[in-house]
Structure formats: structure tokens, C-alpha cells
Amino acid sequence: MMRRTAFKILISKLQALRLLLLLLILPLNLPAPGLAVQNLSGERRAIAHDPNLQSFADALLPLFEKMPPVPVFVEDAPVVETGSSIERGVAFTECESSENPAIFVKKAFYEKANRKQLGNIIKHELTHAWLCRQNLMAGHDELFRRKFESVGGFGN
Ligand SMILES: [Zn+2]
Fold first, then answer.
1. In angstroms, what is the span from residue 16 Cα to ligand 1's centroid?
2. What are the Cα distances from residue 21, in Å, to 35, 40, 45, 97, 123?
């Protein structure tokens, strides 16, 4: 599943700095280490950055021509029965601009997935991000499938 909703927060190469600034700006009563962001339609989202998940995703980058790291967030939102059979609404990649793809993994999935399942979904989302960076993001098309399979992705 892809979402292209425009968000106020754009993840960029200056992501670390921006997150730091965001933390400084956010009201202090937000539960740490979670972040709350609001998209343009006013929907509030609770996201958190998990260093372990980020490392897990970063370790897969050599499969993607060593593309720059893609920020990965855990989102506390309901898993929905939409999206591809592999994603099932458990994760998605935002491609607001080709420089700034960002991956969101639903907390409920992240907490119960084994490493194989997690690795597969991260490969899937990194494939979206890889295409996003090339301005080729177009869902689960032939280009997607070819790359996903070449990095050892399975299913769907
Ligand atoms: Zn997908």
C-alpha cells in the first residue's frame, strides 16, 4: 500500500537535525519517545523512531545499490485489511518527494513479526523507497516485482 498524503514533516537528509528540532518544538507532555505528527487533513498520528528497526533496515541497503538510509518509523495505528497481500496494511512507504521516502511499520505488526517476516516487509518497503528515489514509484508493477525478487523478497 502506498500513501502519498502530504505531511507537514518531510523527512530529509537532515532528518536527525529535524527530528531534534521537532522534539524541541513539540509540547513536553507528549509521551516519550513517541512523536505525534499531523498530516494536512488534520489526522493525528503517533509515530516513534526505533533505532533497532532502523539498523535492521540499514543493514539491507547494500541490496539497493547502497542507497542512502531511508528513515523507518513505527506507527501506532490499526492494522487494516487493505493493501497487497504481503503488506495487509501493516506497513507503507511515503514518497512525498524523491529525496525523502519514509517507511512506516505498524506497531502491532512490528511487535509480533518474526525476523523473516520483518525482513521481507522491510525489503518490500525499501523497494518502494528505491523506486521513489528514482521517481519511478508506481505501485506493485513489473519494475517493482523485478527488484523485490532480486533482493530476495517473497510472496505476493
Ligand atoms: Zn507495497
1. 26
2. 12, 20, 18, 21, 30
Mean pLDDT of the chain: 82
> What are the CA-CA distances from residue 77 to residues 17, 27, 74, 90, 107 (Å)?
25, 21, 9, 9, 7
Residue 5 has pLDDT above 60, yes or no: no
How many of the other CB atoms lie within 10 Å of CB of 149?
Answer: 12
The three three-digit cell numbers of residue 68, written as one number: 542512502
**Cell 531534534 found at:** 20
Work out the widest C-alpha separation in the chain, in whole angstroms: 46
Separation of 2 CA from ligand 1 center, angstroms? 6
The whole-model pTM stands at 0.74
Cα–ligand 1 centroid distance for 56 (angstroms): 19
Torsion of CA 9, 49, 62, 4, to 10 degrees: -30
Cell reading at 21: 528540532
pLDDT digit string (tens) for 32-57? 455 666 655 666 789 999 999 999 99
